[in-house]
Design goal:
Spore Coat Polysaccharide Biosynthesis Protein SpsA, Chain A; eight-stranded mixed β-sheet; 14 strands; 21% strand
Length: 302
């Protein structure tokens, strides 16, 4: 299939031809895209094993924009995990600061090149488009963990806790509790009432499944692309509702609330979606998503 190469990839090609001064050791910056704009699946994901010494394969998906101030805080919390069978899919969404180069250098400094797969967008796509294309490079049996680029895992055993939840084969999706940083205020997450689960009316209930969000990639793959879009584009904000409502509806009895604090949510970032004009757009999209047709529960996420 035809491939389109990013600017970083062209720099590397130029270095081979002697057309640029880009050093050869930066060749890991080269990233290719398929002609439909999706990401090419990395060999590390293709060759991954679903189970390694009782550890399920987990892929931490990080979408990031202008996070040069937070990238180290974010990635350190992943790299210190007491867990072996995982990879990181890091999407640098055309950041206008030094996020892309800082992240690449930091991964190399930490010796985590085998764990981290980085995509550099040439134009900004926003979080939901990045998630859609990144998760579609994962095998259906992969457990996906979503971590925003300015947040961090709360401790070094988060992936162990997620793996523990999926020991139960009836669990296809989890959501949990977070703590706001720097205030330390506990988040708003709580389990759905029994009546909501029985009637599968999740999107009509005020509570929402929030950080930390995890699920089988195969469950995500079953979401219709058009349900993630509004007027021809992916929802620019409120991606969590757009993806979690369809998945928890399909999973229904097969989801689990984890009360443990697993994420430190960065409340100080000035470009958070809920600040400024983004709050109004969030409310608009919230209503649109909740008004859409519910999904029916399914027999298997694969």
């Amino acid at each position: 299939m035809k491939r389109l190469y990013s600017f970083a990839g062209m720099l590397f090609l130029g270095s081979l031809l002697g057309l640029t001064d880009e050093p050869m050791q930066k060749k890991e910056r080269a990233v290719s895209f398929l002609e439909d704009g999706s990401y090419e699946r990395d060999e590390r994901l293709i060759n991954s094993v679903p189970m390694l010494e009782s550890e399920r394969h987990i892929v931490v998906v990080i979408c990031s924009y202008n996070n040069e101030k937070y990238y180290e805080w974010n990635l350190d919390s992943v790299f210190v995990q007491e867990y072996k069978n995982y990879h990181v899919l890091y999407v640098n969404d055309c950041s206008r600061d030094n996020t892309g180069s800082f992240v690449m250098d930091y991964i190399e400094e930490q010796g985590m090149q085998d764990k981290a797969i980085v995509y550099h967008n040439e134009e900004r796509r926003k979080a939901l488009a990045n998630l859609y294309y990144a998760i579609h490079t994962c095998k259906p049996t992969v457990i996906v963990v979503i971590l925003d680029g300015d947040d961090r895992f709360s401790n070094a055993t988060v992936l162990q806790r997620i793996n523990q939840a999926y020991v139960d084969k009836n669990v296809w999706l989890t959501y949990g509790q977070f703590r706001e940083h720097p205030s330390g205020v506990l988040g708003f997450c709580k389990p759905y009432p029994k009546r909501v689960i029985e009637r599968c009316c999740f999107r009509y209930h005020p509570d929402t499944p929030s950080h930390l969000r995890t699920f089988y990639a195969g469950l995500f793959h079953k979401i219709r692309k058009e349900d993630l879009m509004f007027q021809g584009d992916f929802f620019s904000v409120t991606y969590d509702l757009a993806v979690m409502f369809p998945m928890v509806e399909m999973a229904r009895l097969h989801h689990q609330f984890i009360p443990d604090i697993l994420v430190d949510y960065n409340g100080e970032n000035p470009i958070n979606d809920h600040k400024g004009l983004g709050k109004q757009l969030q409310r608009k999209f919230d209503l649109i998503i909740r008004a859409r047709t519910c999904y029916v529960d399914i027999e298997s996420p694969f």
